[in-house]
Specification:
Blueprint lengths: L2 H24 L2 H8 L3 H7 L3 H24 L5 H16 L9 H8 L5 H27 L9 H22 L2 H16 L4
Organism: Pedobacter petrophilus
Protein name: TetR family transcriptional regulator
Keywords: DNA-binding, Transcription, Transcription regulation
């Protein structure tokens, strides 16, 4: 890696949690310089503007979550187990063990809905990719007779995503361990009942 690539990587790594917690509008150039210890000139010597930093930070945050999900999925050998791996991984997100500030897709889709079309597009693409992967897992589960054939794979994927993202929102608002456990139990029961 060149020095410039290392510096860009450093800036992204240090600012990604800030963008995820504070959002695009809430993150200032001073936040970026404080987090990195670099001058404004150094930031703009590596990125054209704050938009470019925010887009790279979103990619970094999504990749961090995806790596955790893949790690959880590698421990599973069934389609339902792999669907449950999403629930387990996102429980880590709620607890702040993966990406400080919660789910980058949820945060960014709300933050950039009307204010930043490029970030909104990235959030949409991440959501569609997530839905497609989960739809594929449901299709595998149906093919392997783990999941009943009467279920519509895309509907199941969207329902699980909605349960996860809604659970994150409720858990963050209530800040209650009991609420997190109830939501985990509901999501787990929903997936386990797909075979009946």
């Amino acid at each position: 890696m060149s020095k410039a690539e290392k510096t860009r990587g450093f800036i992204i790594e240090k600012t990604a949690p800030i963008f995820n917690r504070k959002g695009y509008a809430g993150t200032s150039l001073n936040d970026i310089t404080d987090a990195t210890g670099l001058t404004k000139g150094s930031i703009y010597g590596n990125f054209a503007n704050k938009d470019e930093v925010a887009l790279a930070a979103f990619d970094y945050n999504v990749q961090s979550v995806e790596m955790k999900i893949i790690s959880e999925m590698n421990n599973q050998h069934t389609a339902k187990g792999k669907l449950l791996a999403y629930v387990i991984a996102y429980q880590g997100l709620i607890a702040g063990k993966i990406s400080p500030g919660g789910c980058p897709v949820l945060n960014t889709s709300i933050d950039a809905d009307d204010t930043h079309p490029a970030l909104r597009e990235k959030a949409l693409n991440a959501l569609l990719s997530w839905k497609n992967r989960m739809t594929g897992l449901v299709q595998d589960g149906i093919a392997n007779n783990e999941i009943a054939s009467r279920y519509h794979p895309e509907q199941i994927a969207l329902t699980i995503i909605a349960m996860i993202e809604g659970g994150i929102m409720i858990s963050r608002l209530t800040n209650s361990h009991e609420t997190r456990e109830l939501l985990l139990e509901s999501s787990t029961a929903y997936i386990n009942n797909l075979s009946t």
